[in-house]
Amino acid sequence: MFKGVKKSTVFIAFMCVLLGFFTAKSFNSRRPGTIIGEVASISRIEKLLKEKDQLEARKKEMDNRLMELETAIEAWEKEFALVDQSTEDIRLELKNARSFAGLLPLEGPGIEIVLNDRQKDSVLLSNPGMLRFYIVHDSDMLNIINELRAAGAEAISINDTRIMANSRISCGGPIINVGKYQRFAPPFIIRAIGDPDRLAGAFDSPDSIYHMLKAWGLRIDVKRMDKIVVPRSLGDSDYHFAKPVEESE
Amino acid sequence: MAIMLVSLILGLMLAAQFKNVQRVGGNVSLQRTEELTAQIQKLNQEINNQQNRIYELEQRLLEYESVAQDEGKMSDALHRELERTRILGGLVDLEGPGIVVTLNVISVENWMGETGIVRNVYYEDLLKLVNELNAAGAEAMAINNERIIATTEIRDAGDFIVINTNPYSVPFEVKAIGNPDTLEASLKLLGGVADTMAGELEIAIRREDKIRIPKYNGPLQYQHAQPVQ
Q: What does the H/E/C string look like for B18-31?
C-alpha cells in the first residue's frame, strides 16, 4: 500500500493526523455553553465595574456634602458660643463628644505599624503546605488592635480606616475586611495615637502576638512618631435597632 | 524529520493552551462577577445610609438657622445636638432587641473525685465573639455591663480578663443590640464561634426583645489625641 511512498512522507501524514486530532479535541472541549458564558461575563464585568465606579463617585460626592454640612453646623455653633459662657461650655463639650464618637479626624503622638506577609524566600517556597503560617490573618490584626487598645491607644486606623467600637475585622479570602465597607490586601498600615513608648512597649510583653508573628517571619515594623493623623469614621455607626433610654425612668 | 517534530509539539501545545484558557478564564470571571456584585450591593447600602445622614444634618442646619435670632433657644439647640452626639460615642444607655450570650466553664470530675474545669474562658474567646457580632451588624455591645467602645480592650491579667481597665471573671455575659436573627445565626453557624466553643465551654444564646446596654463609664478625655485643626 505504501510502496513507492517515502518513509518520511508517511510520518508527516501521521503527524498531521495527530495535530488535527488535538486541535479538534481542544475545540470540542470548549462546550458551547462555556463559550457563551465567558463572553457574556466579560461584558458583564465591564458593566459592573462601570457601575461600581459611578457609585463610588456618588459616595465621594455625598461624603463631601456631609462634611460641608458639618462645617456649616460648626460655624453656627461658634456663633452661638459667642453669646455667653454657658453656650461656649456646651460647644466645647460637643467637640469632645464628637471626637469621642469618631466624627473628627484626630492627631497626636503615636506609632505606625507596617504589617506584611513573609517575603517569598526558600523557606516559604519549600513548604507550600505551611503557607497559612506565613501570611497575615484577620485574627492577628484583631490581636494587634486589642493590644494597642490595652496600651492606651486613643484612636486607631487600619489603612486609613478609623477603627470604631463596631468595626469588624474579618477574613475575606486573600484580603481582610475592615469595618463595614473596606477591603484591604497587605501591606497593612496601622496607626495608633497614644503614648508612643507605651504603645510600642506593648509588643515587648512576652505574651504579645508580636513574637509569634516575628517567629514565622512576617514583616512587622513598629515606628514611633511625634505626630500622626487618624482619619474620622465616615458612616460606620448607624442605629436601626438601638434607641436611647429615656433618662426620666 | 524536523517538520514532524515541530508539528507534534505545536499540536500538543495548542491542545494544552485551549484547555488552560478555558479553565482560568471561566472561573476567574465568575468569581469576579460575584465579588463586584457584592461590592455594589454594599455601596448602595452605604449611599442609602449616607442619604439619611445628610438629611439629618440638613434638619440640624435648619434648626440652627431658626434659633439664630433667639438667644434663649441657642443653648437648647446645642444641648440637643450634644445628646445626639453622645449616643454615637457610647455615652448614653441604649435599649433595643438583640441577644444575650452567657459563657461559663464546664466542671468535670476526674477519677479521683476531684472537680476541675475543661478550660477557662480566654480573652480571645470574647474578642472573637465581639468581632463576630460586629460582623453581624451589632449596634451596641457590653460584656458584664462594660460597654464596648472604640478603645475597649479585652486582655488577660492573671486569672482575670480586663475590659475597659476593670477585671472580670466567669461567668461572662455578652449583650448585643441588633437584628436578633442575624446575630444568633452568625454565632450558631456551622464551625462558627458557638460551635467551636461547645464542649469546652458552656455557651447559651438567648434572644430578647428589650436589652439594656449601659453607657461607657471610663474617662472621657483624650490625653494625646486632639482634633485636627
A: HHHHHHHHHHHHHH
Nearest to A235 among B49, B78, B128 (CB): B49
- Write out pLDDT tens, residues A98-111: 888 888 899 999 99
Q: Which residue of B has its CA nearest to A196?
A: B224
Would you state the pLDDT for residue A109?
94
Whether residues B90 and A149 touch (CB distance < 8 A) is answered with: no
Chain A contact present for B192, CB below 8 A: no
Inspect the interface and report whether the beta carbons of A106 and B155 lie closer than 8 Å. no
> Which residues touch B159 (CB under 8 Å, ≥6 apart)?
B169
Any chain B CB within 8 A of the CB of A208?
no
Total count of residues recorded for chain B: 229
Cβ-based contacts of B196 with chain A (< 8 Å): none
Rg of chain B in Å (alpha carbons): 28
Q: Is B24 on the interface with A (CB under 8 A)?
A: no
Whether B96 contacts chain A with CB within 8 A = yes
Nearest CB partner across the interface for A97, out of B71, B85, B228: B85
Note whether A108 contacts B222, CB cutoff 8 Å: yes
A-chain CB neighbours of B1 within 8 Å are: 8, 11
DSSP class per residue in B101-169 = EEEEEPEEE-TTS-EEES-PPPHHHHHHHHHHHHHTT-SEEEETTEE--TT--EEEETTEEEETTEEE-
A74 touches chain B (CB under 8 A): no
8 Å CB contact of A239 and B220: no
pLDDT by residue (tens digit) across B19-44?
555 544 455 567 777 778 888 888 88
Report ipTM for this prediction.
Answer: 0.76
Distance of CA A246 to the CA centre of its chain: 38
Last residue of a domain, one of A76, A97, A118: A97
State CA A145 to chain mean position distance: 14
Q: Which domain holds residue A47?
A: 32-97
In tens, the pLDDT along A210-232 reads 888 888 878 888 999 999 999 98
Q: Which CATH number fits domain B94-213: 3.10.180.10, 3.30.70.1880, 3.40.190.10, 3.90.550.10?
A: 3.30.70.1880
